[in-house]
Amino acid sequence: MTELGKFIAGKLLQYLIVIFLMLTLNFLLPRLMPGNPLVFLAGEDVGFMSSAEKEAILDKYGLNDSIIEQYGTYIKNIFTGDFGYSYQQKRPISDLLVERLPWTLLLTGLGLVLSTVIGVMFGAISAWKRGTRTDANLLTVFMFLSAMPSFWVGMILVSIFSAQLGWLPVFGAESAWSNFSGMERLIDIGKHLILPLATLILISVTSTFMIMRYSMLNVLGEDYIMMAKAKGVKEKAIKYKHAMRNALLPVATVFMLSLGFTLGGATVIETVFAYPGVGRLMFESVLSRDYPLIQATFLIITFSVVIANFLADLIYPLIDPKVGSGNG
Question: What is the pTM of this model?
Answer without folding.
Answer: 0.76
